[in-house]
Amino acid sequence: MNKILVSIVFAVILVLGINKITDVIYQVEKPENSAYQVNVTTVGSSETQESSGSSQDGDIMALFASVSATDGAKIFKKCAACHSISKGGANKIGPALWGVIGRKAGAISDYKYSKALVAHGKIWSFEEMNGFLIKPKEWIKGTKMAFAGLKNAKDRAAVILYMNENSDNPLPIE
Ligand code: HEC
User: Fold this and answer.
1) How far apart (Å, rounded) are the C-alpha atoms in residues 165 and 159?
2) What's the pLDDT tens digit per position in 131-150?
3) Best residue among 60, 83, 152, 165 to mutate for probing ligand 1, ranked by most atoms within 8 Å of CB
């Protein structure tokens, strides 16, 4: 009789305990899930907003006319936690970005890039940077850059313009 009681109590404790644990796991995972979903829906909506002409994702050059490097400096605040942009700036969590436009991907010698980024091996042209910044982890599978991306094409254009100006050899914009 006593044994049965004890095992019932144990069973209850076990179930409650598992509930607690799954609660914790669920809470930890939840923000990631919802962030992803928000991302997907806004990408869709910004595409419909911008599908009316020259401002498609690929057409970064056309967007430069409607943005300024000053806008870009504001957007860059999102990057500044991990990247320096000033001349002679140090590597932080991510590599120093002075002169990154026109530079080969993975070219800072004293920064430890992911294998994926080094293997990518492309030049950071305007188009390449635009593609990367939409969703870094899709453009370069395996990159360790933990940044969701910039959904808005104008934000990308502005920050690319800003990075281009923070360089010894800015690429011509035409
Ligand atoms: C949470 C930190 C973090 C944020 C925020 C972040 N980055 Fe990065 N970034 C990294 C890391 C880490 C790498 C190295 C990636 C690798 O080696 O795979 C990287 C790499 C890069 C590279 C490649 C540089 C090279 O030398 O090839 C570019 C370009 C870049 N980031 C631009 C940006 C821009 C622009 C933003 C803001 C819109 C941004 N990053 C936001 C962490 C970050």
Assistant:
1) 10
2) 999 999 999 999 999 999 99
3) 83
